[in-house]
Amino acid sequence: MTAVPRTTDGDGTPVPQRLLAAATRLFAEQGYDRTSVQEIVEAAGVTKGALYHYFGSKDDLLHEVYARVLRLQQERLDAFADADEPVEKRVRDAAADVVVTTIDNLDDASIFFRSMHQLSPEKNKQVRAERRRYHERFRALIEEGQRTGVFTKETPADLVVDYHFGSIHHLSTWYRPNGPLSPQEVADHLADLLLRALRP
Amino acid sequence: MTAVPRTTDGDGTPVPQRLLAAATRLFAEQGYDRTSVQEIVEAAGVTKGALYHYFGSKDDLLHEVYARVLRLQQERLDAFADADEPVEKRVRDAAADVVVTTIDNLDDASIFFRSMHQLSPEKNKQVRAERRRYHERFRALIEEGQRTGVFTKETPADLVVDYHFGSIHHLSTWYRPNGPLSPQEVADHLADLLLRALRP
DNA sequence: TACGACATACCGACTGGTTAGTCTGGCGCT
DNA sequence: AGCGCCAGACTAACCAGTCGGTATGTCGTA
């Protein structure tokens, strides 16, 4: 504990990440407003001084959680969307993948959909903008399928995307890790539902 | 303001309902935790004395909002489910109706899915129980269709219900009253998506 | 390699402000 | 002459963020 930099004393992970992890868990469990800064720093084994050394505000902490999730999901979507496969498969893969990664990070998901409106107006705007990019990318995929005739044109692509992601946002409400279905099974079922709904 | 009972002075509606209406609007706009009881009583044109005369706590107010929505939706679902029609039509009607009534009360909906976890544990449990009843009724409908062969058996009925209601809960996130689609049009589209997904 | 100057990482007491809920009292109807 | 209905001041608790202070490491210079 003498030679190591302070950032990692205690356990091996650096303080900022410990703070982020503690905040994520607590925000998901109790909600943003109900979680005090004091609780977060205690869970991370530091004090307020440390938190405000690395983060500008409690709000910043929340924003970081969002940024991480958004970046991850956008990267994955882009990878699937750009793949060299027929549209149906690209849509299916992307739709199923987002289910799996959402289940893998259920805490992030529940924070995302319960606490977005407690971000400061500017940060909220920023998050919405990135969220929109994601939405549009997915919509473009659906529209491609509609143009090429493999998907029905009956429902506007926008609505289809909102429909699918509504259910994904609510995974954190009903999915139970110790339930009968594995994340992959749920993902397959939800992707099936989407693809069947799109069938002409 | 002399002859009328206090319960209705100011305008015509009784104080408890004015409080409930003000609370609903404010909870939806700012969230439960960020709304102070002071704001609520000011919006309703009364004081804390009045609020705590009719309600036991701020929490009670939130619970009332839930109770009203749940009762309404359960009644409507029961009516559609018990109708003398083929299963497909009953499912379609029920699925579309819940969309319309949700859009008609978007405030209630956004409170519902954002603030449920801030209810006291017991009230939360109670709400979950009623919510479950609703879910099961809907699931029974789907299962009936699966048994009689008009719906595919590929996806568990439970999952189908969660899929559909996930998107309904999120209507408040993306539906814009001044957007291009009327509530009824959205309802028809979402019901179509559900029915197409269930097609064998 | 010795040393001073500066930067980084963190501590923890403190402050100013907000909040849910209580309580005493009074008005007007019956 | 009581009782439902409500006003509004008050309290006890809590909370985000600040700030002065300390310990540790780094780097330039001679």
From TrEMBL, chains A, B:
<dbReference type="InterPro" id="IPR023772">
    <property type="entry name" value="DNA-bd_HTH_TetR-type_CS"/>
</dbReference>
<dbReference type="InterPro" id="IPR050109">
    <property type="entry name" value="HTH-type_TetR-like_transc_reg"/>
</dbReference>
<dbReference type="InterPro" id="IPR041490">
    <property type="entry name" value="KstR2_TetR_C"/>
</dbReference>
<keyword id="KW-0238">DNA-binding</keyword>
<dbReference type="Pfam" id="PF00440">
    <property type="entry name" value="TetR_N"/>
</dbReference>
<feature type="DNA-binding region" description="H-T-H motif">
    <location>
        <begin position="36"/>
        <end position="55"/>
    </location>
</feature>
<feature type="domain" description="HTH tetR-type">
    <location>
        <begin position="13"/>
        <end position="73"/>
    </location>
</feature>
<dbReference type="InterPro" id="IPR009057">
    <property type="entry name" value="Homeodomain-like_sf"/>
</dbReference>
<dbReference type="Pfam" id="PF17932">
    <property type="entry name" value="TetR_C_24"/>
</dbReference>
<dbReference type="InterPro" id="IPR036271">
    <property type="entry name" value="Tet_transcr_reg_TetR-rel_C_sf"/>
</dbReference>
<keyword id="KW-0805">Transcription regulation</keyword>
<keyword id="KW-0678">Repressor</keyword>
<dbReference type="InterPro" id="IPR001647">
    <property type="entry name" value="HTH_TetR"/>
</dbReference>
<keyword id="KW-0804">Transcription</keyword>
<protein>
    <submittedName>
        <fullName>TetR/AcrR family transcriptional regulator</fullName>
    </submittedName>
</protein>
